[in-house]
Write a structure and sequence with these properties.
There is one protein chain. The protein is mostly beta strands and 84 residues long. The chain has a single domain, classed as Thrombin, subunit H (Beta Barrel), CATH 2.40.10. Helix content is 0%, strand content 37%. The strands form 2 sheets. The protein has a 4-stranded antiparallel β-sheet, with no helix packed on it. The chain has a 3-stranded antiparallel β-sheet with strand order 5-6-7, with no helix packed on it. Strand 6 and strand 7 form a beta hairpin. The radius of gyration is 13 Å and the shape is globular.
Length: 84
Amino acid sequence: MMDPATGNVIWARGLPGPVIGTPTLDGAGVLAVQLYDNAGLFLLNAVTGAIQRSIPGGFEFGQAVFADTMMLVPTQNNGLWAYK
């Protein structure tokens, strides 16, 4: 995460694979990051970069979307996953 005003790095988090799509931020400060190559999805604290949860999965197809109290994750072979 970078400070848009200064360009300084606020935090950095290594993950076990390349990110696919654009990470998505919800209103509570949770950043959903999908990984390519069957590496799953990671939920990060947007302020600190700490991993809050990892969700193993199939090949993610696009970015997660937060809607109301749900997180929707499209996959390549396993349809649309919904998490509450």
